[in-house]
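$ ./design --mode recover --in tokens.txt
reading tokens...
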């Protein structure tokens, strides 16, 4: 009788342990590998797929966008002009929800994966700069910008339209629908400036003076006339690299020559009639005063030059 009781007790124990193991496994399977970014803390890094760029979660927050009169005066006396910085005003308060931004500019290697996968063909030719009388090289393209690059250099000679095509491909990777519909996109101009400032209110993210430029960015005086691999200069306080210098970065916005009608929630400005698109951050070819967080530039959506690249943003759930 005792042997029967012991047998029954052992059977019940085995059943209970097996059931608990199955429930634990089911819970683990349900929460297994996922691309969800819900609840991730600011500064968290993630990658949605092997070919996807590494992303950094940027906290929600408020900031003052644009430059003050004193900053514009400083810029005008350090290589700019009153006209060239007039589009940085009026200063205005912007509130943004959390989002994710590329840890680096999109690299040549990452862009090459997109081209291999899709067979994407961009237009021919690439300008040598964004200056009005710049020369356009007929044989210039992202594979041949006119200087040597590695796969870790930021891709150049890409238009706003090329950047959007890359983003559609990324969205296909994570949503299986190759279109602009999906979590990936270009950052709005406000998101870009908020991320570039990274909580600072100074002219540059490292301070008010450009004498720290060489230690923090690639620009005219230290670039040796070419791009450099991403991530060689220090990250800003948000953990983002090369937010200024190396290459200009496309944003989603249509350009306006002032902020009088700018959104206060960080959304991108659009126009039903077409527009010039805003790019930010300056580059390896231009002087240090343009490395300020408030600096703006604009170009046609189909424009390509050797100083233009981009980084991607991602909407968080």
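writing sequence...
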């Amino acid at each position: 009788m005792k042997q029967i009781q012991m047998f029954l007790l052992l059977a019940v124990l085995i059943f209970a342990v097996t059931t608990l193991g199955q429930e634990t496994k089911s819970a683990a399977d349900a929460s297994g590998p996922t691309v969800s970014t819900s609840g991730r803390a600011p500064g968290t890094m993630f990658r949605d797929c092997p070919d996807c760029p590494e992303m950094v979660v940027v906290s929600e927050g408020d900031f003052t966008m644009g430059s003050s009169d004193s900053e514009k005066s400083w810029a005008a006396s350090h290589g700019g002009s009153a006209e060239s910085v007039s589009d940085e005003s009026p200063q205005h308060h912007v509130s943004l929800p959390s989002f994710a931004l590329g840890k680096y500019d999109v690299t040549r290697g990452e862009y090459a994966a997109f081209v291999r996968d899709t067979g994407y063909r961009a237009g021919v030719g690439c300008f040598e700069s964004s200056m009005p009388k710049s020369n356009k090289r007929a044989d210039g393209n992202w594979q041949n910008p006119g200087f040597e690059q590695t796969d870790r250099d930021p891709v150049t000679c890409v238009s706003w339209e090329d950047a959007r095509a890359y983003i559609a491909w990324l969205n296909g990777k994570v949503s299986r629908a190759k279109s602009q519909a999906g979590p990936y996109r270009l950052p709005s101009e406000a998101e870009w400036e908020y991320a570039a400032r990274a909580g600072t209110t100074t002219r540059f993210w490292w301070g008010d003076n450009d004498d720290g430029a060489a230690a923090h960015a690639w620009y005219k005086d230290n670039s040796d006339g070419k791009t450099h691999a991403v991530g060689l200069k220090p990250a800003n306080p948000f953990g983002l690299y090369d937010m200024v210098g190396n290459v200009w970065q496309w944003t989603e916005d249509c350009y306006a020559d002032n902020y009088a009608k700018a959104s206060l929630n960080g959304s991108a400005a659009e126009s039903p009639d077409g527009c010039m698109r805003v790019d930010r951050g300056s580059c390896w070819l231009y002087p240090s005063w343009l490395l300020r967080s408030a600096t703006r530039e604009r170009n046609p959506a189909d424009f390509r030059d050797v100083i233009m690249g981009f980084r991607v943003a991602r909407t968080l759930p």
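exit 0
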